[in-house]
Fold this sequence. Notes:
The protein has 16 helices and 19 strands. It is of the alpha+beta class.
Amino acid sequence: xxxxxSSDLAGQRILRIEKLNxxxxxxxxxxxxxxxxxxxxxxxxxxxxEFNTQTVTxxxxxxxxxxxxxxxxxxxxxxxxxxxxxxKSDELKGDKQHLSFEQLELLxxxxxxxxxxxxxxxxxxxxSILAKEIKILTKAIRPMPTEMEEKEERxxxxxxxxxxxxxxxxxxxxxxxxxxxxxxxxxKKGFYEVNIPVLxxxxxxxxxxxxxxxxxxxxxxxxxxxSHELPLKRLIGGGFEKVFDLGxxxxxxxxxxxxxxxxxxxxxxxxxANYKQGMELITDxxxxxxxxxxxxxxxxxxxxxxxxxxxxxxxxxxxxxxxxFNIDIEKDSVEKLTKVLEEKGVKLEGESNRNRVVDNLWxxxxxxxxxxxxxxxxxxxxxxxxxxxxxxPEVTERFQPIIAGSELGNGYTELNxxxxxxxxxxxxxxxxDAGDExxxxxxxxxxxxxxxxMPPTVGWGHSERVFWFFEGVTAKEGVPFPQLKFxxxxxxxxxxxxxxxxxxxxxxxxxxxxx
Length: 515
């Protein structure tokens, strides 16, 4: 069997297109609309004794193709794993839909095929399917690369990355399970999932710079949501008692190993409950989800050994900061606090205010903490949507889990006093008007909802950063398709010379927009 290919991508592509055309001339449907696949590869392998000698139909991608005289061996892969295809020249049936032994030379690695045959073991003891019929499902006209070392190339062509590195695909399967089990936990606790708008007139619920877009049908500018919070609390005002939403949010901020401007997040709101009940629920949720996703509650994260099964410590915000730095975060001047921060090697860029300085002082301490623990007692000036404590009205009923030096979520007893909320919104709007693009906007409709009345409520939110954290990967590694700068590489330009003008137009348009 001949399987000679040019050493360059363009040459190999030409040869594969020639094979594609030969298959079409022979009357084969090279891209049929369906397959008769019955089982996954892993199911056959794990239950070999049950399937031994049975005739089944499998399907997948050809990972390798080897010929030994009148025998051909293939490795067939699907999402579950690999199985060997064992082909004898006198066993293979060819017809108008199925390839003959001689026509196997028209196949290449990367092609998708369907194999009907008997489950058996070879003389070497490898579980295999002895092929009786082979049907082509998709002809791949580009060869699969043998390796991709550059991270950005792996991000751009994640479909190749997942084929070359099945552990990457397995990671995204765990990511799906992470959110599936989050939904399962909340649903069993009586929460309703209600999807809310992504586009908002006024965006709020977090300190973040929003993306802006234009709504042509309404002739108005809108923001992409930075949080799920305010619409979900409107649902509480509308009579829901347990509600959540899970979906994307957008924060027009810098990229880092822990943050992406676009990411998936979940928020829930629970009426007639407060932050103490919220902490109990979150402890249970973390334990349930992590056990289901990773099969353990013990983790090694950075230099920390984490055990989610032990009792979570309760920490007080002001006590930690005042004791560590010999300061008073409520009374000391912003200048004094800034000086302490700079002495710790942190210099803030842009507008500096008490909120930002104190938050960064806290981050200096947080990096050293293993947890699991809950941070409580966060000052009111840092929590514009949280309810004040009865014991000390200058702090709020807010809680944040601290694990391996990071905050992995945010929750609090929700502020439901409309006059207090209006005052805090006004303070935030003043900060925004003074140049702080991350300060929250005044949302008068939300204030009016509170004036009609919203019951005592605890709220919570976390992003998929929780998954990245326990998975031990960076933000870009933790999502299937991270956003990257637009580019058309030279190989693509050479393969499609007839599209040069269109490629130039696209790159020019992106360059103009970025400037």
